[in-house]
Amino acid sequence: MTASGVPVSRDSAVLPRVFLQIIQSASAALPPSAQRACARGLATLQYRLSPARRAAVLENLAQIAAAGYPGLADLKARGRTAQSMLESHHRGWLEYLGHSRASAVPPASPLRIFGAELLYRAIAGGRGAILTAPHLGNWEIAAIGLTRLGLRMHAVTGVQLHPLFARQVRALKEREGIRVSTPQDGFAPLVSALRGGEIVALLVDGDVYSRALPTEFFGRRVAFPAGPAILARRARVPILHGHAVRSADGEHAFSFDGVDEPDYTLPLTEDLSRLTARVARSQERNIAAHVTQWCIFRPIWGVDAA
């Protein structure tokens, strides 16, 4: 039944699940080389047939170039990078759906972890932590891999893949032990999760947020999500900075890059700005280092923040 009280037909729930299972089975049957070829073909089509998305990506890359990254100064280089970003996006879904059909990440294909000492320092004594990361590499595979370490993961997501599949994709995460919240759930379940020792994962470069602060990002001020800073102050937990990446041979890795703690000697607004700026700097470094795997396709720098 919908929120308005209108019954949902059985077909409306069954058909998306069956269709997603078909996609999962097809993805699982493809060897990595075929997945790459399929992703490349889909990326080429999307680059040509989706002018709005193409323009947004090229605009974002131009701003990154203007911030001091000469490898993106040439328009042709930005075009090649944009197609690589789209390819990484499609490849990520094929990898994730194929793995989820085969019970996610098999023990024989572990996620490589770097900087684990930062993780264990942050969660010492049973504390929870906020894990901030950009949409790099295959963050879905990374989240499953982190649960294999015994971490209790809690993700905040919007609509993924397509609205028709939102419930099914959420179920896939929960099957792997990843709890899921949406922005509509508010901060309360996240604060409770953090105080209970869970890791709350936030992909901060996306558009799933409710509060933002003016913050410099690649040389221009934008309305940057302030959720990690607010949660850190409320729950009295640290912020872990990290990123996922896919190597040239297709292996998945996750790196913990740093830890920031709330500073209760500072006024609230000052500390929120400080922590948000720290998150933005970490995101910026990792995006610049792995921009061909950055899966954000909306304009970020439309209007400068005040």
Q: Strand order within the widest sheet?
A: 1-9-8-2-5-3-4
Instruction: Give the averaged pLDDT, no decimals.
Output: 88
Shape assignment: globular
The major sheet is characterized as:
7 strands, mixed
β content, as a range?
15-25%
Number of helices: 10
What does this structure look like?
- By secondary structure, the chain is an alpha/beta fold.
- It has one domain.
- The protein is 48% helix and 16% strand.
- It is built from 10 helices and 9 strands.
- The strands form 2 sheets. Strands 1-9-8-2-5-3-4 form a 7-stranded mixed β-sheet, sandwiched between helices. Strands 6-7 form a two-stranded antiparallel ribbon.
- A hairpin with a 5-residue loop joins strand 8 and strand 9.
- The longest helix is centred in the N-terminal third of the chain and has 27 residues.
- The radius of gyration is 19 Å and the shape is globular.
- The chain starts with 9 loop residues before the first helix and ends in a 17-residue tail after the last helix.
- The N terminus is likely disordered.
